[in-house]
Amino acid sequence: xxxxxxxxxxxxxxxxxxxxxxxxxxxxxxxxxxxxxxxxxxxxxxxxxxxxxxxxxxxxxxxxxxxxxxxxxxxxxxxxxxxxxxxxxxxxxxxxxxxxx
Amino acid sequence: xxxxxxxxxxxxxxxxxxxxxxxxxxxxxxxxxxxxxxxxxxxxxxxxxxxxxxxxxxxxxxxxxxxxxxxxxxxxxxxxxxxxxxxxxxxxxxxxxxxxxxxxxxxxxxxxxxxxxxxxxxxxxxxxxxxxxxxxxxxxxxxxxxxxxxxxxxxxxxxxxxxxxxxxxxxxxxxxxxxxxxxxxxxxxxxxxxxxxxxxxxxxx
Lengths: 101, 205
Fold this sequence. Notes:
Chain A has 101 residues and is mainly α. Chain A folds into 2 domains: 1-70; 71-101. Chain A has helices at 2-5, 15-37, 42-64, 73-99. The longest helix of chain A is centred in the last third of the chain and has 27 residues, at 73-99. Mean pLDDT of chain A is 84; it is low at 1-5. Chain B is elongated and about 60 Å long. Chain B has helices at residues 18-47, 58-61, 64-89, 93-123, 132-165, 169-199. In chain B, helix 1 (18-47) packs parallel to helix 6, helix 3 (64-89) runs antiparallel to helix 4 and helix 3 packs antiparallel against helix 6 (169-199). Chain B has a single domain, classed as Cytochrome c oxidase, subunit III, four-helix bundle (Four Helix Bundle (Hemerythrin (Met), subunit A), Up-down Bundle), CATH 1.20.120. By secondary structure, chain B is mainly alpha-helical. At the A-B interface, helix 2, helix 3 and helix 4 of A face helix 1, helix 3 and helix 6 of B.
């Protein structure tokens, strides 16, 4: 872990960041393609682009924000908790407001 | 849990002091709270998707080319600030300044485009008081824009501090935290383009 955690410290080239950038560009372009050029149903499109966005959030957290470096299990716990509450708020609100319609 | 002090070598400058580690962890707690704040605004927007009071819908008004350019500006700025932190860890002051400067420029262009976008929408007759849909749109995207504005001011101040004091545990920690904030804003924007512009309009095109 010691060597691995900060290996980028001695690296000459920011591979991790460039991989993250390429991934985020690809994921964004995919989301745009799926929305504007594919004729999936509304539900399928929503599921696909929300999945792409969530994957991109993970890319940001891991490649750019170094969430998982060090053995900082606490910050992963805090972010996971925040994300859980966020999902409950959004999904719960939509569920409640749609179910009465 | 192992403390960072158990690691013998190669500690990035922002983690060098115990205070820095605690402050960075504290900032993660703040980001988690911000996540919840934005989720409330998203929930409001998504519930009001069809509540346009017979007025204009998102599909009719949204300017997609501008929004897509904004997205790539912010994505690139997130990348350049991560390179800035990479150079910070290699203790290369000049390159940190160059990459963070590019980040700031991209951020300012993003903000300029967003202000222009809002001005166009208001000219076309949709304001915050048009309908529930447009109220929640302006509040959500406006809150993100306010965060970007604050991020630009904050990062400029941190950079001035950095220019004057050089690379030390304090300036490194401040720069690292500001860049965490910047990445977070980019992550939120990903959900803004997905939730607001694509689900709230583009999907119907």
